[in-house]
Amino acid sequence: MSTFATYFAIFATLNGIILLGSVSPASAYRSFSFKGDIADNRNPVLSESGFQNTTLFYGDCSRPYTDVVKQEECILHRVQADFSGESPKDDECKITLQSESGGNIYMNDIDIYALDKDRAIMRWFEDAQALYGLHFRFSIVDFSNCKVTTTKIMWRIDVTLLTDFPSKSPGGFFNDFLKKPRYLKEDDNFQVLSFIDKKVVNRSSINTEGVISESETWLTYPAYFGHPTVIFPLSKDNGYLLIETSINKPSMTVAHIQPNGQRKNLTYVEDVHQPMISLANGLIGICFVEKKTTMICTQFKLGDKEINWFSASNAVKELGFERAIYNLPRGEGFLTHVSENTGEIFSRYLVKIGLDGKVEQLVDTDLKCLFEHQDPAFYKIFEDDQGNYCVSAACMRYYRKIVPFPFVEGKHVKFQSKCFEPEDFQNISKHEIKA
Fold first, then answer.
1. Element (H, E) at 175
2. How many CB atoms lie within 10 A of CB 250?
3. How far apart are CA 159 and CA 213, in angstroms?
4. CA-CA-CA-CA torsion for 234, 235, 237, 242, nearest 10 degrees?
5. What element of type H or E holds 300?
6. Least confident interval from 12-26, 279-293, 387-401
7. Three-class SS of residue 357?
8. Is residue 166's pLDDT more than 50?
9. Angstrom distance (rounded) from CA 29 to CA 420
């Protein structure tokens, strides 16, 4: 059998190495695929926060992501699919990013967040010069009429949040979380939480008309830069989940912040990095990368008296690709996927892992995204309306085609999803186990 016909994934478990060979791609019972080409003189903007299960918001802007400009013309796309067999629908609204102060707009710091199926936020920074620092600007786009409402939060953002955080340090994973706000959608508005410097997290509330009704200091830290924090909104009634890392030691503290601001530390784990979170099925599932081949995971509900951690399998390949986990119903474990880099990013296996950390079942999804020059790819695992499990992938290529070969693709955004029935998952016992 040729190397092109044989695929391998290696999982490290508590009991040894599981070697999976010759696993054929499964035939998805529901799927869709979308590709949006981007002109060579324009550039795509893709964010994990703009990506939902079967809906993708992405940008198409006129200037390179490395540019610093005072005005930018973008098109915000909304791609929607419903597994009906019809091609995904691609709607678009034009949006102008305009500096009010005459300061610069940083093209490499534009982010997109999906509020709901009809509304999205394009977040960008305006450099209001030294006196005022950086301002968060929010352009709220309503796809029902393409109305764009742009507002700003008058926080003086420490510019070093964009440049100073050491990207390859143990806490380097948190660089994006330091400079990208987190959102909690409420009935008619949304809350914005973000670091304004390396010691303070601020919170504001903004309605859909762009009116800011509340702004306050939400968290403070006594030490400069000492506890980079990842903020995960839970719900209006339950507040937020915080994950803090120590710069001096790769350890994580998981805490719950109630809506009234009270904090309760829930659990602590050492020698880990890169958190993955699932809030599906009323559970909080967390996995940290421990080594190149293992993860440390837990699954619990708020109010549980005990939170237990267990070692779980992971890909043997070095990490660096975006990953996802998904909580199965309580007691059943969770789903994750393994990406293998063989010239392309392969979201190769959708894997079921039990609460004992052992791989139980898997399916070869055969989802592919071109991987060159660190092009980003994001994944979501979800349950469809028929109770089956699906995985979606969104990725982009932002380098123009520079060689005249037909198999070399130009700039584009790709969005695809596949759903699998229970019988598509193969039991792990069918495959060889090596000690």
1. helix 175-179
2. 18
3. 25
4. 20
5. strand 294-300
6. 12-26
7. coil
8. no
9. 6
Q: Token pair of 97, please?
A: 């990013």
According to the per-residue pLDDT averaged within each range, which of 17-26, 210-219, 267-276, 412-421 is highest?
412-421
CA distance 256 to 201: 15
**Mind listing the pLDDT tens digit for each residue in 313-322?**
654 344 344 5
CA distance 19 to 349: 13
Residue with tokens 């490499």: 108
Q: Rounded to a whole number, what is the distance in angstroms from the first to the last CA of the chain?
A: 25
Rg, Å, the chain Cα set = 22
User: Which residues share a beta bridge with 184?
Assistant: 191
The type of residue at 435 is A
Is the pLDDT at 109 greater than 80? The verdict is no
Can you tell me the distance from the alpha carbon of 88 to that of 379, in angstroms, rounded to the nearest whole number?
18
What is the number of helices (H) and of strands (E) in the chain? Answer: 2, 34
The closest of 269, 266, 271 to 255, measured between CA atoms, is: 266
What strands, in cross-sheet order, belong to the sheet with 412-420?
30-37, 412-420, 389-397, 377-383
pTM: 0.82
Residue 102: Cβ-neighbour burial (10 angstroms; 0-12, 13-18, 19+):
exposed
Q: Name the pLDDT band for 376 (thresholds 50, 70, 90).
A: low
- 413 burial (CB, 10 Å; 0-12 / 13-18 / 19+) is buried
Q: How confident is the model at residue 333 (pLDDT cuts 50, 70, 90)?
A: very high
